[in-house]
Amino acid sequence: MRVERPLTRRGLLASGMAGAAVALAGCAARNQRPSSAARVRTIPFQLNVQGPRNASVNALVQQYVDRNFNASHRGIRAVYEPWGNMPAVISAAVAGAGPYVISGCCNDFATALPFLAPLDSFLRRDNIATDIWSTGQLQTFRQPAGLYGVPAYTAAQPYFYRQDILDELGLSYPDPNWTAADAAKLWKACVADKGGKHRYGATLDVSPGFIGEGAFLLHGFGGAFMDQTGTKCLFDLPGSIQGGQWAFDLIHGGVATNRGHWPGGELAGMWLDACVFSEGAGGAMLSAVNNLGSKFKWDLIPYPRWPVRPATAVQIDFYGLNATVPPADHDLAWELFRFATVDPGWTRYVMRLTLQQPALLSQWDEWETVVRAAAPVLRGKAIGYWKQAAVDGWGYGLQFFKYAPLQAFQIIATTWTQLWNRQIDVQTGFRSIAQQIDALEQADASVPTPGAQEIIQAHRKLLQQLRGMFA
Hints:
The protein is an alpha/beta fold. It is built from 20 helices and 16 strands.
């Protein structure tokens, strides 16, 4: 039987992946004792890795799983699957299969929710308090019936900014206590058109058709996405409208754009001199080390001080338990979930693998030490702003309404596109969003919310009907 040699620092760097952090993780990898396939049951689960998806990284992750989970579970081999690919995950869940632990991002959570099991009983049983994670991110995953997910990493986003461009323009670096007015003024001064290319002052994490992480602006200006019960839309609050107006004035004025404006990965626009201030989380640190590195003069700074309260965008990548797991494997699924989310080993490993921010608040000081040691270019950079926003709970992500969440999301997306294309003004658009969503909520409030198993059965029935139609 041919046994693969474990990947090493030399082998990993030869695969074309940059970054000393990856090499640190590679040094710890080991192979496991081979087992007969006839005696081993394979259990798929997803892990969130904010970095290159290639054979080398996949092999390193599986080696970690083999050494730290499979070695102590005789007859079981948990196999890592990359996070995302929600259509395939849901198709498998409908069929009563799929990964035991599900990981996705953004509106993936609403799509996956009918197939996720509530976590509260497991957390209580093992005496796990939810304050080990950022409170801002947990808001996204709370539903009336309980908590259905936890963050894959603490994704509060500071701004990366190009100090060398500010130097060329004769502009002072912003003070960490800068205000929204300070930011707008500075970003406008950065705008330029050169060689047929437009340079933006900053990114704002909103897009045509998707408010996404831009929901934080509503809170910063004194508004909110919804009330605490998740049954009333608050886009029509004066603060919500003011936050939207501030953002769209900059977008329509050519001062700000969304983070997905450039091809080639996160922060690629800064590397191409297309933007001066750019938000980033998750894989942004590795991207900054690789794309900005020592080629440019750059640093980090927190979001501006908004008129009412501190607020920062968060990405809502999550981990959840697959509700279609056979009852006999519920405890095994929970063990895998704990392995990925609660126990510090995996988050400690992945921060060395890709410089990814930890999900556990207790690991922030360790993260700063690790990434500075792994990437010397980060020494002297103000990377601590990630920690402050996460620990203080300043992150506000996308939330989903109690009734008809996907329909409500579509209303927001449609109006957001109209706003982006200047087909409607902010005040009219935001009030329309609130009116339409509240009408949805009132219509559905008298209808009991089905449980996960009921929805799964409905999906199975629909799938059978479709198969019959297209047979």
